[in-house]
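USER: I would love a firmer grasp of how sequence relates to backbone shape in proteins. This is the protein in question:
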Amino acid sequence: MVEPQEEEIDLREYINVLLKRKGIIILIFLIAVITSALVSYFALSPVYQSSTVFSVAKIDGRSVINITEALEIIKSNVVLDEVINRMGLEISSEQLKSWIEVKNLKDTNFIEVSVTADSSEKAKSLVENIVEVFIEQNQDEYQEKLKLVEDRLKIIDEQITEFEKNIQEIEKTKKKIAVTKELSEGERQFQTSLLLSSSVTERELYNDLSDQANSLKASLKDCEDFKVINYAQLPAAPIKPNKKLNILIAGVLGLFVGIFVAFFLEFWQKGKS
């Protein structure tokens, strides 16, 4: 029994096929590159992106709005509908939402908002308006919480002033008792002891209020309003389409397709002969 001999194709045969069919390979390569270039430069609309970073207001070191909630609010209809009205856009809030990307910069109260649009001016204007509307809609909450701290501090300061007057009056009374001749030694000691007890109580309350006042003052120093950290810039170039990358990918794919067609034609021709 004669065993079938396996057909061996060496590297030289592969190269010969490529050289023989180089015309079709080059043709398919050029078609892919030219088509990609035409589509990238003339058919695809450019997409621009503009970004800004702002900080969420803080009271006593804590954000007035939960950062996770803030990320959702920025893309909510309440904010986006107002932006659409301000800019006179003829799009839906859902469409605008698809253009927006928001993220929290790790371990901070900073939020980055990025917007894509079909023009650089539109992308910049959109991101500026979105942040502006969000801050305006949440400014009242910050001011209310800030006012609560300020009002509490004012009340405590008034109480501290009152305790200071009381302590001064006690000291004056003690001096009067010490020099009065109308009271016996025992009566002076008794009244002085009462005043001392009252003075200790007043000073304890005074010190407690002073600690509260210092804590509130420290909180006020640690308060931060909403603030834009990085202002939106006018994009110098579109982020999409990446024309060079598109042409490169098309060229590589065209080359592979051309080689495949070359070997397929060679196989087909051999099969017919």
Q: What stands out?
A: The beta strands are 48-55, 58-59, 62-63, 100-104, 110-117, 227-230. The longest strand covers residues 48-55. Residues 13-44+241-258 form one domain. Residues 1-8 have pLDDT under 50 and may be disordered.
